[in-house]
Every structure is written in structure tokens, then in C-alpha cells.
Model the fold of this input.
Amino acid sequence: MIQVDNITKQYGSFTALHEVDFSIRKGEFTAILGPSGCGKTTLLKLLAGFMEPSSGSIHMDGQLTASKNRLVPPEERNIGMVFQSFALWPHMTVYEHVAFPLRHHRHTREEWKEDIVARVQQVLRMVGLEPFFDRYPAELSGGQKQRVALARAIAPLPDVLLMDEPLSALDIELRMEMRTEIGRIHRETDASVVYVTHDQGEALAMADKIIVMNNGRIEQIGSPEDVYTRPQTAFVASFVGKCNLIKGQWRNQRFIPSAFPWETWPDIGVTESLKKQGLCPVRPEQWNVSGERGEGLKGTVLSVQYQGKEIHYIIEVENEKWTMHQSIFQPKYKIGDTISLSLKADEPVNAAAL
Amino acid sequence: MISHSSAAPEKRTEAPSFFSFFHPKKWFMAIGFLLVVLVFVVPVFRLVLLSVLEDGSWSAAHYSRILWEAATWTAVKNTLYAVAGSTVLSLALGVSMAWTMAYVNVRGKRWMQLFIFLPFIIPSYITTLAWIQFLGKSGPVFSLFGWAPNLYSMGGIIFLLGISHYPLVYLFTVDVFRKIPRELEEAAKTAGASRRHVLFKIVLPLALPGIAGGGLLAFLTNLDNFGIPAFLGIPANIRVLSTYIYEQIVGFGPSAFARAAVLSVLLGAIALAGTCVQGLLLKRSRVTETAPRDTLPRVYLTPIRQRMLEAGLWLFLALTSFVPFLVMGALSLIKAYGLPFRLENLSLKNYHYVFLEDAKTGSALWNSVSLAVLTMGICLVAGTALAYVRYRGGGLLPKWMELFVTIPYALPGTVLALCMIFAWMQPVPGWNPGLYGSVWILLIAYVTRFFVLQVRGSYTALLQVDPSMEEAARVSGAHGWVKWRRVLLPLLFPGLAGGALLVFLMVLTELTVSSLLWSTGSETIGVVIFNYEQAGYTTYSTAFASVLVLAILAGGLLFTAWGKWWERKVMKKQ
Done:
């Protein structure tokens, strides 16, 4: 449905995107995840048609929409967009915001064009803003503004809904609420969603598919569980899973850390590409911890951060610093304590099988 | 649901590469660039060319002849004295006023600001007229003290240039002061520095790029000014370069144009050099641009001192921006020049003559207003278009275009007027469309001169609108015109109108360019007032000027009120 082939985008001598290649199926919720400056916003602008790529092409529904010499402008595409700053027009009411794309969008259904009032009501009901139809943006709260932006984007029912960090301007509670809301609207409209974010929690929670980006390149494409548990690159391992990357050698499906050659660890689902690099990613929650006299590597607690539902430790092991998360129901350690670390090798068990 | 492998075979072949060559946008850009070069750059070249040609061949004869004349050097010397003196005065007034308004706890700053701007929006020749009345034989100073300083002198020129242009320095520096972080001063104080030390070691060095920028702007404006040295200097036989050029052209003579061209190249070179230095200084001071403005006072005076300072400030503002105009208005009501200001001598006779009997006034009003409206309209559309292209970051071409349209504004008005004569008398050698000698050359000259004001105004307005406003309209399906009408114009309107109003006011009261380009039937308001004054009809010129001042004030107030209304009603700002 959206086919991105070898897209490169250069600004002068700076290359924002390097040969990016992926496709998005109809109705799919795709998150583009990466740190700031990784090229994800550039990619979204290319998908919207605000600029043309330096090379490569984008096809939507089999039609060429962007290449070096050809650009279908955003106003002729079947898209909707939600902006980071909401981008509400201060001189229009909520009603006018939703009616605007119904009047001008090329792909609005004829029946909606004929009865705009009814469609606006329908959309406002969907986002829960019906009583606010005559308000101006200055008279709305942050969450309500976000809903207006969403309503404006979905009103003409576009095939593709582009979202540029839509929740980053909201406070944390509202963010959780809007996650559910956006998920519901995605199911109701059946549009393909491309959702740009730097928050891996949002991407993992909402997306069907995550595209992890760094320095203008795609690092990995996969389902949330794939990206989280089977990272293919060191960047994905540390950015998405917050992994400790331990150097060593893989021999016969067992890992020998180079700092502690006397240890061998089992394979806990490490991808081939990381094995080739001689890396073993260990997520902070994958450690088994016991006291000084327990089994495994010995380390010293450097810092303790109490987080409520869990405690975050930084452990120094042979001059390396590892992070470790422990449930508060487990024994607590203090700074300076010596502890023993080993890997949790348990396979995930499907709840239905119990 | 289409799987991604099945989408691939449907791909269309890419458009052939010559498509980009025929891209209409690129053609528009190229035509626009060519127009800008023709209108804004070529005239300057023709001026330079004329100064180095004699009888069709290259020659430095004009230069050597003029540079040997003592009169040239007297004019250069006078120019330097007048410009240097008035720049120092503007700097002293502007910087101390800016420092006070930025840092000291004085009440009523909003009103004070308004009065500081007054001499700025009223054309300097009208300010001069007002001061001539204020310090004249029938003015209040003379009748109170039996003596008044003589304005028709170098001192008078310096004084009027200085007080007319100190608002520029003020405008430039007040935000620089406000943006110097308060913590820097506090850090110096905790390190034991006295107040004087803080001012000279911390505040002034940090504000220096801004102050220098403001000073150079004042320098350029003083250099460019024609009205003040024309009203005060010509009767006293004091010539500066701008009036000297004017006299060359008005006096005709065999080589008038060539001589004027040489002098203009001299004056223009000084002005352009100043503009370049100012541009460099501005780049340096841009560091502070991102710092937030801190409008809370930093120096707290005791109540008694505060009252005294306030009284002093109001006295100064009343003297520079209010009383002279009041006196001018009052004296315009006197039947005959020289009569004492008494009830039985008052009448509306002068107004009756100016507005009902003299046909020239009516036609000048009509000319100036229609020129102002036309110039404003052309600049508004074309200037906003250029600003938009520049804002969208279309590469190097728009940047060059912006630089080019700045040149005619940076050049002194007399120089520009001369460029216009040379460029449009025979736009193509051998073909004279009769523009010079008609009102149309004024229109061309005004658009050329004030275009950049609208470009800057529109560009600033565009910068204040988040790009996502436009992008949201586009993804909602809005095409060019719908996007502008429904989204961009309502958001940009106050900013665009501000730039347009400035252009309108500038054209309406313009004197320098029109004093050289007018012809019978195409007089402007400025020219009529100037001619009244030159012919000795002081009461007529003051009557006309009084009406003009009132109109400008009314226009300014209406615009401010309308802007507030727009913010509240349309932009929904609380």
C-alpha cells in the first residue's frame, strides 16, 4: 500500500536519510522509532509530500507519488496528519477545523460533502468533543486540542494517517489515555497509521510494526516483541531494550564473555547478526541476583534508584557498569554490597498453555 | 489488503528528466530574478556608468574635475560634520533612553514609548518646520526670553538630525539591554563590583554590537536625510552632499547630470560601505537574539528620585515630540506671518487657501495618496511573494534577490532619484517612453525604494506563523488559493498590514526622491510643502503640515486599535 524504495534525502552536504527501504500494508499501525535527529521526521515529511527525495521513490497504492523529479503535493494525496504542536488554526472553531478537510480534501466521500454538519458531528462524537464544537483553540485544554487535531485528520477518512510525535506535548497521564484513544480510532477507521516517536514505550504499546531508525538508516523492522526481545543491532538492543551489551565470543550456541572467560552463558534468544559481532545483549530485567555467597559473577552495587514498582541498580563488574532492574518483592541491596549475577534462562510461557 | 510484493509490478516508470527543465516553478523563479536585477540593480549600474563616460568613451575626467573643486570638499566636510555630530547626539539620546527604559523603575513606560516613536513616524522635514516655528520670531521661546537659537546653522542641522533619528538607536538597543541576562550583573555585584563598574565592565561591552548597529543605522539615516539640510542649510548656504546633488540637478547646466552622478557615486559608496559594516555587526550581535527579554526593572530608585527622573523624561519627551507640533499648529492659525498670537489674529484663512484655493494642493494630495496606495498594493503582493519564496528556503536565488532589493533602500534618496532618471529616461537606448516628467517615474521610484520594507515586514510575519499551520492546511487538501485565503492570510494579516502601512506612510510624506523627480502636475505633498517654504509662504506650509501630522496620528491610532481588535476577535487571544 505504501512502498518506499531506496529513499535518500540530502540537505546540502548533510545526508538525513540513507537508502531507506520498507513497505506498509493497508490498515497497519507502523511506528517509526528513533532518537531525535535520526531522520524520522524527514521520513514523515517525505511520506506527506512536503518535499521530494534526493533519490529513490515512494509509491502509494501502486502510484508513483514521489521521486527526484516528480512530487504529488500533499493536497492531492489521500492522507491525514497530526502534528506535534497540534497545528490548530487560532482563527477557526472546532467545527470549522473538522469541516475544513471535508470541504477541500480530494478524497472526501460525496455524501459527507453534501451534509458536512452530520459528518462533523459524527467525527466529533468519535473523539468525544461534541459539546465543544463552537470553541476556539485558545479555549481548549491540551488534551482537547489533541482531539481536535485528530478529528481534523480523520474526518475525510484518509487511507494513511501520519502522526508526528502527537503525544509529546501532553502530560504523562493524558498520554496514557490518548494511547488507548488513538488505538481505538485506528481500529474504527481502518486507516494505515505511520506514527513517529522517540518514546519506545509508545511504539511498543501501540504499533503492529516498528521501524527503528538511527543516523538516517533503518536499524531493524519488526513486531514490537521482535524488536524488543530479538534486537538485530547493538543500537536497537540499547535503545529499545536498554540492554547491557556484553562483549565476548559465541561458541556452539554458548557465550564466553571476554572479561570473564571462566563463565559460559546459555543462548537467551540472541540474533545471528549480534552473535557475529561477538555481543550478548542482556536486558536489565534478565539478571538473576543473589547475595554475596550465591552463584555467578561477583559485582559491587554502585547506585540504587528506587522507582516504586521496581528498583534500578548499577552494578560494577570487573570495570564494566551494568544496569539491573529488580522487583521490590526481591531482596534489597545497598550501595557497596557485593552481589552475584547470573542470567535468567527461562523461556517465555504462553499464558493459555497453563 | 495488498501485500508489499504485489505492489512492485504496478510501479510507473519515472518521468523523463527534461520534465524538471520545464518545471513552471523554476521558470517563475528565473523570471522573478531577472525582474529584480532589471529594476533594482541595473539603475545603479547605469549611474556608475554615466559617471565614468564622457562623450561615449571611458574617462575619469568628471571625477578629476569635481575632486579639484573647493565646493566639493566644502560639501564633503559639511556632510561629515553634520553626520558625525548628529550621530553622536542620536547615540547619546537613544542609548541613555534605552538604558533607562530597560532597567529603571519608571512608571508609564508604555506612554513614554509612544512619545519616543512620534518623531520617527512624522517626516523629518515636518519636524523641522515645527522647530522653525517653535524657535522662530513669533514662537514662544523668543517671546519669553527675547532670544532663541538660530536653527539655520550647522548646529541647527545637527540638533534636528539628532532628535529626529534617536528613536532608531533607541529601537535598536532597548531589546539588546533587555536581553542581557540579569544574572551576569548579579554575578559581578556578588564579586564586589560597584554599580558604575557593572555598567562599564559588564552591560556596555555586552550591548556594544547592538549599540554600534544602532549608531550605524543613525549614521546612514543622517547621511541620507535631505529634508533637514534642505530646509535649514540651503537658506544659510550650508551644503551637504545630498543638497549639493539636488542643486546640481535643479540648476541644470551643461554637465549637471554627469556632475551629480559623480557626487552620487561618492555618497552612495559611503552609504553602502556603512550598510555592509552594519550587516556584519548585526551578525555578531545575533548571539543574544535567542535570549529571553527581561522587562522587569533592575535599578530601583527612591520615590523622590523616581519622581524627578519621570518629570525629567516627560519634559524631554514633551519638548521633542509634542510642544513644537503644538506651536506649529497654533501658528498656522495666524492670519499673517509675524503677527502676535492673539485671539483677534486667528483664522482659518491659511487652511482655506491651502485646501480650497490653491489647486496644486489638491492635486498633490491626490498624487501622494494614489501613489501611496499603488506602491503599497504592488509591494504588498510582490514583496510578500518574495518573502514567501525566501521563507520556503528556495536556495540561493531568493537570498540574492533579497540582497538586491535592499540596495535602493540603502542608497541615499537623492542618489536613487538620479539612478531612476538615468534608468527610465531611456530604458532602452534610443527609446524614450516619456516616463521621466510624468507621475509614473515616481511610482517606479517608490516601488524600487520601499519594496524591501514590505519584504522584511512580510518575512517577519511569516516567521511568526508556525510552518505546521500551512502544512496542516495542505494535508487537509487545501490548494494554493484556498490555503492563502482561509489559513495564511488571516494569520499573517496584522504583520502584512504593518509593513504595508509603513510603505504607505513613507510614500505619502516622501520628499527626497520626489523633489528631484516631480514635474508640473505630478507634485507630491512633500514637494508642495517644500516649495511653500522655499517661496517664503511659511503659514501655508505649516497649515498643510499640521493637517498631515493629525492625519498620521489618526492613522496610527486607528491601526493600533484595529490590530488589538484583530488579536481579540480573529486570533482569539485573551
